[in-house]
Amino acid sequence: MDQKALEDYVNLPDLHYSYTLVSKEEHHDSTVYTINMTSVKWLNDSEVDKTIWWHMVTIAVPKVYKNAQMKKSCFLLLAGGRNDDSEEPAEYSADQIRTLAKHPFGMKNITENSLFAYVLWRFINDPTSSLDWAIQFPMVKATVRAMDTVTDFLLKQTCEDIQITEFMLLGSSKCGWIAWLTAAIDKRVVSFVSVVMDVLNFVEIFLKELLIFLKEFHNYKVKRLRILNQSLMVSDINWVTSANGNENWVTVEEGFALAPFYYINITQQIDHPRFELIASNIDPLKYNEHYVNKAKYLIVASGDEMGQPDNSYYYFNQLTGKKYLRIIPNMNHALAFYGDSIGIPIATFYLITMQNQQHPQVHWNRTVVRDILFTTAKNSCSAILTKRHFQQSI
User: Fold this and answer.
1) Helix, strand, or coil (residue 27)
2) Known InterPro entries for this protein (predicted)?
């Protein structure tokens, strides 16, 4: 396995990289800059219809820093979208790169899981395809270029008063995946937060999710055979079934994130050497040694329809460095919109990291008799245990 492939791809100069200031807004406590950034050329015109990637980058700079140490740090939010959103400023240097995971592909205008499934299929079945086909590669490169842009722009804009040398990344779902990979190859990333992104140890978890998918798919076919015989449409994330007449059929989500992979037979090629090759280059756990000095905060949902609540068993104990895992009960993949319940802890994690404060030290071990032994370095004020009733959904 060539673990340098991602780093080499990111570091390869791209003459298309550039940025332009679009607007500047003054707020009572911050100045907000909006920048149009062209990050990378992905593949060529004969392979995809959108080779040039561009993004709107929003930078919020406080007018007064409560802690001068924070002048060297930046909170970078990786977001999706379609180049037309607007964002609010933060209370510290904050950067948001948008449209990171929404680039349509080819003539079919496919995105999200369907796009990921297609690039896997293309790489596996076309021996001439290079690892550049991995969609995560240009996404990581775009993120690194965003960090370059923020650093360069603020250095010039503030006459070298603000020199960004440290970043914390925040990404949800596929952008969380990119946060992991970017942290692995860029030393400026000192910490990162991954929300509802649970695919470390990718092949093992993919196999586990596949078994669950096939079981759910079988049950679905038995119950909805009549619907499947009418019209079936594969959307970005799930399957939407519809029937003629006045009947309204539900959107099927749980266990069906693998639908695009199933349709183009990726599920039959897991043992293929080229599947293993591309998987090994996009699996964050393969870069585990790069996370030794990086603090990481994983937030997942117990009811995530894209993954199972026990996925952490496949990777968490193997992770190096400071690591924190939070499983939020009774929430699905839309956890990204959970509000202050995750926003405040994330901001706290950022401030603790950038101000070189001591992170909480917690440890736990699961036993074969279902017990969990939990210890902390300091006495805790309280502890909350959440249980699942076996007769109810998570």
Assistant:
1) coil
2) AB_hydrolase_fold, PhoPQ-act_pathogen-rel_PqaA
Residue 222 in tokens = 């038995």
Q: What b/e readout covers 244-253, taking b as 16+ CB neighbours within 10 angstroms? A: eeeeeeeebb
CA contacts within 13 A on the Cβ side of 140 = 28
Top pLDDT among 217 and 391 is at 217
- H or E element, residue 154: helix 136-157
Which residues are within 8 A (CB) of 96 and not within 5 positions of it... i.e. 6 or more apart?
57, 58, 76, 77, 78, 79, 87
Say which residue the tokens 């393969």 belong to.
286
Alpha carbon 187 to its chain's center: 19
- Integer Cα distance of 74 and 143 in angstroms: 13
> Which pTM does this prediction carry?
0.86
Helices 136-157 and 174-185, packing angle to 10 deg: 70
State the amino acid at position 372 in one-letter form. I
CA-to-CA distance for 5 and 8, rounded, in angstroms?
A: 5
Dump pLDDT digits (tens) for 216-250.
Answer: 666 665 565 545 444 444 333 333 333 333 322 22
Lookup: tokens for 381: 């004020």
- Distance separating alpha carbons of residues 208 and 378, to the nearest angstrom: 37
- Give per-residue pLDDT as tens, 110-132: 667 888 888 999 999 999 999 99
Report the C-alpha gap between 191 and 183 in whole angstroms.
8
Left (φ > 0), alpha (ψ -120 to 50) or beta: where does 20 sit? beta
Which pLDDT score is estimated for 360?
A: 83
Q: Which two tokens stand for residue 221?
A: 């076919």
Strand partners, 97: 57, 78
Q: Which residue type, as a one-letter code, is found at position 255? A: G
Share of the chain above pLDDT 90, in %: 52
- DSSP assigned state of 308: -
H or E element: which one contains 140? helix 136-157
Between strands 372-376 and 251-252, the pairing is unpaired
Question: What pLDDT is attached to residue 155?
Answer: 95
Q: Residue 94 is inside which H or E element, if any?
A: strand 94-97
Per-residue pLDDT tens digits for 17-53: 999 999 999 999 999 999 999 999 999 988 888 899 9
Question: What's the distance, Cα to Cα, between the start and end of the chain in Å?
Answer: 38
